[in-house]
Amino acid sequence: MEQFTNPEIKRMQEENAKAAEEQREMLLTQILTPQAKERLGRVALVKEEKAREVEKTLLTLAMNRQLPGKVSEDQLISMLEKAETSQKSLKIVRRKGFDSDSDDLEGL
Asked: Where is the composition biased (Basic and acidic residues) (predicted)?
């Protein structure tokens, strides 16, 4: 079994990450129109998480052969809007005057 040193492992991981990124870019170029790809790039500058979510959805659809053709800019805008409305938010509401621990201290 071959022994790899720490720098070699790091280099191999970086090469794998670079190859995966290149493959992702190539696939996006194949499934998006130039205008849609440009828009997705602009969205990624502002909201990278949202753009990555839509990219992941697009790549999944493409790999499952569920895209009828190239995705247009209008279709991408629709997907981005749906992604925005589907993001969940957590709202914490604090109640005033309620403390469950206050009853425990009365007997002390």
From this structure: 8-20
| Tokens read off for 23 | 């493959």
Q: Is residue 63 part of a domain?
A: yes
pLDDT tens digits, residue range 69-103? 899 999 999 998 888 776 556 667 777 765 555 55
- Would you say residue 29 lies in a domain? yes
| Domain ranges, residue 57 | 15-84
Q: How far from 98 is each of 92, 94, 95, 105, 107, CA to CA, in Å?
A: 15, 9, 6, 14, 18
Average pLDDT, the chain: 83
CATH of the domain at 25: 1.10.8.140
Q: pLDDT tens-digit profile of 9-18? A: 888 999 999 9
Q: List beta partners, residue 32.
A: 71
Total of domains in the chain: 1
Task: Answer yes or no: is 68 within a domain.
Answer: yes
Rounded to whole angstroms, the Cα distance separating 58 from 52 reads 10
